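Appendix C. Worked example: Si:cabz01074946.1
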Amino acid sequence: MIMNTATGLICILACFYQAMGLKVTGYVGQSVVLKTRVDPSSVHLSRIQWSIYTNTSIIVVWDSGDLREPFWRHMGRLTLNISTGDLQIKNLRVDDSLTYTVSLLTETTDQTEIQFELVVQEHLSKPDIAVLFNSLVKDTCIIALRCSIAEAGITLSWAPPDGFDQPFWNSNNTNNSSELWTSIKPHTNISFTCNASDSNRKASSQKVVQCQEEEPKASPQFLRHRYGIIFALLFFCITILLFKVHAPPKAILHGGEKREAVTP
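Step 2, the predicted output written as C-alpha cells:
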C-alpha cells in the first residue's frame, strides 16, 4: 500500500512537470541539477534511466546497483543520485541545450517518465562605461557617462553610490546604451555603477569619476619634451652667433682693387 502511494506521488509529479513544461536554465562552464523531486524516504527506485533525443540516446542508466554511461556526449560530466534520480551535469556547454527525459522504475515495477527542457546560456558580459563629458563649470563639475553593451535585448540601469545627494538624469535604454548626466563637487571621487540584466542574467561595471580641473596640469612627460625643444633651439641660436663672431672678414672691392676690410 505504501509503495502504491509512492508510485502515485511520482505520477503526480510527472504530470505536473509535463503540464508546466519545466525549463531549467544553466550557464556555460557551470553545473546544473535536473531534480525529479522524488522523496527517497517514501519511494524506492530500482532503475533510473536518463536519455536525450526523444529517448533514443541513453546518457546514464542505473539498474539494481549497476551504473553505466553508454553515450559519449556527456561522458565524465554526469553525476546521478541513485536515491532520487536527480542528474547533475557539469561543465555545461551551449550544445547541452536539449530535452532530457528520466524514466523512473520503482520496486513495484511501476514506471514514470519526466521531461526537462535545459537551456544553456553564455554569461552576460560586463557593460562598458565611457566618459562623455567632465568639466568644471562655476565651481561645479558636470559629468556625463555612457554605458553600452554589445548584446541585444539587455536592460541597462544606473546606480549612484550610497549617500549620493546630487540630482542626476539618465536616458532610456536605446541602441544598447544609456547615458547619465549629473554634477559632483570639486576634488571628489565618485563611483557610478551600470547594471545590465535580462530575464535570467545580471552583470555590472563601475566607473570612478574625478572632477577634471579647468586648466589641467601638464604631465611630466610633456614637460620633458617641451624643455628638450627649448634647449635645442637655444643651442642652435648660440651656435649661429658664435659662427658670425669668429667668421673671417669679407674682401671689399675699391677702385677695381681687392682690399681686406679693416676692423677698427
